[in-house]
Task: structure prediction
Amino acid sequence: MQKPPEQVSEGHPTQADQAIARFLKASRQPVLLEPGEDHLALQSDNFTVEWRNGCLILQAWDDTRNLARRITGLGEEKPGRLELIVERFGKRQGQLYLIDLARGGGLETRRRGCRLVLREQFRRFLSRQFPGWKIAELSTEANLEESLSPVYPRALLRKGGSGWAALAAPPDAGAAAGALTFALLWLNYLRRRERRLTIEGLALFLAQGHQRTTCLRLPFLNPRTLRMAAFIYSEQGFEDRLDARDWGNLDTRLESCRGPFPHRAAHVEAWVERLGRFPYVESIERSDGAASLRVRGLEFARATRTELLFGLQSRAAARESNLGEIERLAAEIARLRSPEAADHDNPLYRLHPEAWLESQVRAHLEQIDPSLYPAPLCAQAPTVAGGERGVMDLLAVDRDGRLAVLELKASEDIHLPLQALDYWMRVKWHLDRGEFAERGYFPGIALRPDSPRLLLIAPALEFHPTTEVILRYFSAEIDVERIGLGVEWRKKPEVMFRMRGAEHPF
Result:
């Protein structure tokens, strides 16, 4: 593991690293809680806290989720409760909490109290913004059958035979990022339930400073199926309607694609060639010119122009004498991270399932979608600000020159459609400006100006049941396809179904 920086100032992530160690040592039943999501129990083999390139990264996983966050500072620290400051999508600040459930139910009491406060604020917002409308329903209760979260107060407004769905997001970045998903589910539920009402639209209330992600998504929803009104509210409890013509600027960056280093040091090139002879080692050329050496998606070494860096948690520069050690490391990863491995609870088997899925997609792309060129495939281009996204993305091009965004998810995620939209809109932005060709992507291929395709690729049983509901509200401009893979995708990704848009697979 890399050592943390020696210079420590107030609020530095090193303080958070030390606080996490103290908390875990003192806790009997620790869980990780991200606002807007269910808690995730922490055990000795399902989380890591490590330094990567000078950044403190906390990663935790279970059978359904894989969460990774960059920790930038330390918030409130109390017995049984630790607040961590994290960097989220778009470089926005968010919170992550470590809770010791063995200390009693105080947390849930506080959470419920905060929800009730927001519910009453929400009532006042609706009364002011929709005068003459009756608040026919206002709730913060969970509805698991309809995937409605208690985190978000929701309401039904009624006037005669017309209605509006409304939802408010708590004042934190995590909840705000998930608000549109739950708002669309609430709208869809009311349209099914209220047969005698015409649900005209959806009103969404977002805390000031946390509205940007949602507002950037709104222009890509279908105005024929959705009439949208967005509001921001302040800490003082005042709200204002947002102008649909000015919902923010897209923060995106497309680095130049260098291709492989043309003059990599001869000894480094020889080492890469030697390691690449093993059938389980993948050598992936990165857009920055480096070569990533992986076993089933898990990187164990990286070759730059002048050196080979190796290791899992921390990296060291290789020497000739290290090659045997590196080969043994790759072989051990291959043994433990194998479809035939007996121990599926081993951390190396469970680590980074999306990376394993990416490896399979790369190796079998023509079987997954024969219209796509198997190479080149670009990962995380353009760059999405804010670090970890929770999904793996690839950018490909089909044989007609049309770009295709591939969003990969190995486990069920209710937010997958809108997370995919976030990346798709950035690809479209750079495509519209001709930047992919200018910056060296897909050389020799004439890229069409058409909007990119969007392929959601996941195990067939891991698409969240609400996925097609959310896709129903996407703009017709977005050509979406869901590709469901067989349960044995780690052995070979067999396509079980292909569905366009919101089609139902069965």
About this structure: Residues 5-10 have pLDDT under 50 and may be disordered. The first strand starts at residue 30 and ends at 33. The chain has four domains: 13-104, 108-241, 266-346, 352-500.
